[in-house]
Amino acid sequence: MALTALLLAGCANVQPVLAPTAAVDPASAYLAGTFTRMKGRGFAFVVRPVGQEVEYMMSLGEDTNLPTAVTDQTVAIKLPPGTYTVAQWVTYNPLSKEITTRRAITNSVLNQPFTVKGGTVVHLGRYDVSQYNQREGLNTMIHFRVQPRVGTTAEMQAALARAYPNLAARPFQCVLCTR
Questions:
Q1: For the chain, first and last CA: distance in Å?
Q2: Backbone torsion region of residue 174, taken as left when φ is above 0, otherwise alpha when ψ lies between -120 and 50, otherwise beta
C-alpha cells in the first residue's frame, strides 16, 4: 500500500545502498552497478520483477540529500530473489525524492530480463551519467544521459570486491560486461 502511494505521488522509492561491511544474507539477492555521475541531482535505475507492478529504485551512486560527483563508485542493494528487468532510469530531487524525469531503457542488453538467486550478485555494469544543454529559442533545455561504459566481468567483480568485501566470494554475473 505504501509503495503504491509513493508511485502515485511520483516519489522515488530508492532502495538503501548496502553498507560496505554488511553481512551476506543467503536468502537475499544482490544487485550492483558502478557509476560515474555529476553532483546535485539524484539518478536511479527502475528495476521491476517480471510480471509485477512493484518498482525497486537503485541509486546511480550513493543516495544522499546533497549528492556529490562520484567516479566509478560501486553500489549494491538487496532484493528478493527473482527475475527482473531494468525498465527505466529516473532523475529525482534528492531532498523531496520527487521524480522529475522518467526515461525508458533503450539498451538492448540492459533491458533484457535477468535472474538473481538468493546469496548471489548480479552486476549491471558500468555507467556514466552526464548532462548537456540545448538551446530551443529563448530557452535552454537541460538533458541527461545514462551511457554504458563496457568493462570486463573481472573488472566489475574486482570493483565489487573493493566496495563490498563480504560479497566478493558470492556467485557473480554481470549483465553488461565483456568476458
A1: 42
A2: beta
Predicted confidence at residue 152, as pLDDT, reads: 97
Tell me if 169 sits within 8 A of 116, measured CB to CB. no
178 occurs within a structural domain? no
pTM, full prediction: 0.90
Integer CA distances (angstroms), 159 to 39, 48, 49, 153, in order: 21, 25, 26, 10
The percent of residues in the chain predicted with pLDDT above 90, rounded, is 80
Query: Cβ atoms within 10 A of the Cβ of 158, count?
Result: 14
Domain-located, residue 179? no
* Beta-strand runs (E) in 28-120: 29-37, 42-49, 56-59, 70-79, 82-92, 99-104, 114-116
What is the C-alpha to C-alpha distance for residues 95 and 78, in angstroms, rounded to an integer?
23
**Which residue segment(s) compose the domain that 19 sits in?**
2-173
**Interatomic CA distance for residues 31 and 156, integer angstroms:** 12
Q: What residues of the chain score a pLDDT lower than 50?
A: 1-9
Total of domains in the chain: 1
